[in-house]
Amino acid sequence: MMMGSLKDEILPFTAMVMVEIAEVGMVTLSKAALTTGMSNSVFVVYYNSLGTFILFLYFLFQSHRSRRPLTFTLLCRFFLIGLLGIFLVQNLSLIGIKYSSPTLATAMGNLIPGFTFLLAVTFRMEKLARSRRSSQAKIIGTIVSITGAFIVTLYKGQPIVKVSSFNNSSFELPLLQKSNWVLGGLFFTFTCLSSATWSIVQAATLKEYPEKMTLVFFSCLFGTIQCAVFSLIAERNINAWILNSGIQVIATIYSAIFVTAFRSSIIAWCLQKKGPVYVALFKPLSTAIAVVMAMMFLGETPHLGGLIGAAIIALGFYTVMWGKAKEKDITAGNMCSLESSTEHTPLIQSN
C-alpha cells in the first residue's frame, strides 16, 4: 500500500520534470532555428506534422484494443483542444520567442499555474475555502507568481555577467537581434492563458473519455491542420518552406519527438492522474533550466530583472505548493477521523 502510494507520487513527478526539460530544449532550439531566418509558422507545421505521424503509428499499433466510440461532441472537444494547445499556444509562443528570448518564455510560463488555478477554482476543479490557511496560501502564492512574471517582462535591468556561447559547438548562431521584451511578454501572456485553458478543457474531457492516446492523437491532428491552413495563408513565400540549415532540421525533429509526441502524451497521463493544477505547478522549474541552456548554447546574458522576477515567482510557486500540501494533510486527517468513527460505530450499536 505504501509502495503503491510512493510510486503514484514519484512517477508523475519524474515525468513532469522530464517534460519541462524537453520543453526548454525545444524553446532553446527553436530560438536558434528562428535566428537563422526560419519562419515560425512553417516550423510549427513541420514539427507537428511529423509528431502527429509518430502518434498515428502508435495509434495504429494500439488499434486492436477496444476503445469507446467517438461522438461528434467528442470530436468537437478534440478540435478545441487542438486549437488551444497546438494552434494558439505554439504559434503565439514562437512569435514571443522571436521577439525576445527562451529565458523570458520560460519565466512568463510561470503565469500558467496562476491562470490554471483561477480557472480550476472557477470550474470547481479545485477547492477553495477563504478561511483556511491552505487556501489563503494558494491565493497569495498565485498573486505573487503573477507579480514576478510581470517584473520579468517589464523590467530587464542590468546584465549580471557577460556570457559567450561555445565557439566549438556543432552549429554557429548569428548575433542575436535586439529583443523587444515587452511585446514578447505580451505574446507569452496570451500563450499562458491559452495553455491554462487547454489544461482545464483536456482534464475535463479525460474525465468523460479516459482514452488518453486517442485524445492526444486527434487533438494533435486537428491542431496541425489548423496550423497548416493558417501558414499557407500567412506565409506566401515558397522559399520559407525550405529548411536551409542543420539547426532547422534538428529543431524540427527534436520538437516532433519530444514536444508533439512525448510531451503531449505525458501531460495527458498526468492530467488524468493528478489534475491540471499539479501539471501547471512544474512550470517554475523550467526557468532555471532555460537560463542555463540559454547561457550555454545561445550566449545569452542573464539580467537583474530576470533574477529578481524568477526569485519572486519561485516564492509564489512554493507558497502555492505549501498550501496544496497542507490541504492534502487536512483531507487525509478528515479521512482518518471518518474511518475511526466508522470503526467505533458497531461497538456503540452493540452496547
Structure write-up:
The chain is mostly helical. It contains twelve helices and no strands. The longest helix is centred in the last third of the chain and has 47 residues. The relative contact order is 0.21.
Considering the chains and any ligands shown, give keywords for the structure.
351 residues; globular; 12 helices; disordered C terminus; mainly alpha
Strand content: under 5%
Please summarize the sheet with the most strands: none
Give average pLDDT, whole number.
Answer: 79
Helix content: over 70%
Order of helices and strands: HHHHHHHHHHHH
Q: Helical element count?
A: 12
Shape: globular
Question: What is the end-to-end distance?
Answer: 34 Å
- The oligomeric state is single chain
Summarize the structure.
This protein is mostly helical. The protein has helices at 2-34, 40-61, 72-99, 102-108, 111-122, 133-154, 181-208, 212-234, 246-274, 276-280, 283-297, 304-350.
Topology:
Blueprint: H1 2-34, H2 40-61, H3 72-99, H4 102-108, H5 111-122, H6 133-154, H7 181-208, H8 212-234, H9 246-274, H10 276-280, H11 283-297, H12 304-350
InterPro entries: EamA_dom (IPR000620), EmrE-like (IPR037185), WAT1-related (IPR030184)
GO cellular component, one term: membrane
Family: Belongs to the drug/metabolite transporter (DMT) superfamily. Plant drug/metabolite exporter (P-DME) (TC 2.A.7.4) family.
